[in-house]
Specification:
alpha+beta; Heat Shock Protein 90; two-stranded antiparallel ribbon; 7 strands; globular; transferase; mitochondrion; ATP binding
Length: 275
């Protein structure tokens, strides 16, 4: 809460920051109320997480990656079938370098992994269906799950014709989307268009020292790779540091870059040609 107060005044006055600040205050009040209760009362703890008795809070000590992949695929498939009346199949392959006979599982938050995979599946399905609308059969989405000594990697490959290299970084910008903006109030969840799916997914991946990267070949398809830590001891929370040094950085004016930046869109040079 103290770090929030260090934000610039114009940021503190925004409704979104004020809302987050109220959440922190309410969370602190809830904790204080909880600590004042009698620990012997059943109402204090109740039946902790009865639907997932093996979970420790929101963490699953034995999170089956393949199961989460299938759950995310099935939900994205429902949306894709609703909008396009068809959807690509799923092919999963697991490579466990430690024990090839054992299915891959890690200590992780299943809801985080589900969100990342769900967003990637939606993007892959939309690109695949729209780029093969005249094909008799849609190419399958292939998912490779590989567990090594340090990393657990999940690669999702589609044949959705890819995107240009110049657009890769923009895909991780908030509010940017290659899909048209959906109309609110029309009923049902949109498949794409808001522009926050990939940025938040990468934020989830980086939260426990992982990452999310895109490798695209325009004219063929895209590989999306989620990198997670294989060992729970390496999955340390990555929290933002906001102190007075950061405050001074926000107050300082932005200097010009060292490199010239061309236009983000290719120019039509036909008008400059000499006859």
């Amino acid at each position: 809460m103290k770090e929030i107060n260090l934000l610039p005044d114009r940021v503190l006055r925004t409704p979104s920051v004020q809302l987050v600040q109220s959440w922190y205050v309410q969370s602190l009040l809830d904790i204080m109320e909880f600590l004042d209760r009698d620990p012997e009362e059943q109402a204090t703890l109740g039946h902790t997480n009865p639907a997932h008795p093996k979970h420790i809070g929101s963490i699953d000590p034995h999170c089956s990656v393949a199961n989460v992949v299938r759950d995310a695929y099935n939900m994205a498939k429902l949306l894709c079938d609703k909008y396009y009346m068809s959807s690509p199949d799923l092919e999963i392959e697991e490579v466990n370098a430690s024990n090839s006979e054992q299915p891959i599982s890690i200590v992780y938050v299943p809801s985080h992994l589900y969100h990342m995979l769900f967003e990637l599946f939606k993007n892959a399905m939309r690109a695949t269906v729209e780029s093969h609308e005249n094909s008799p059969r849609l190419p399958a989405i292939k998912v490779m799950v590989a567990l090594g000594q340090e990393d657990l990697s999940i690669k999702m490959s589609d044949r959705g014709m890819g995107v240009p290299l110049r657009k890769i970084e923009r895909l991780f910008s908030y509010m940017y989307s290659t899909a048209p903006t959906p109309q609110l109030g029309t009923g049902g969840a949109p498949l794409a268009g808001f522009g926050y799916g990939l940025p938040i997914s990468r934020l989830y991946a980086k939260y426990f020292q992982g990452d999310l990267q895109l490798f695209s070949m325009e004219g063929f398809g895209t590989d999306a790779v989620i990198y997670l830590k294989a060992l729970s001891t390496d999955s340390v929370e990555r929290l933002p540091v906001y102190n007075k040094s950061a405050w001074r950085h926000y107050q300082a004016s932005q200097e010009a870059g060292d490199w010239c930046v061309p236009s983000t869109e290719p120019k039509n040079t036909s008008t400059y040609r000499v006859p």
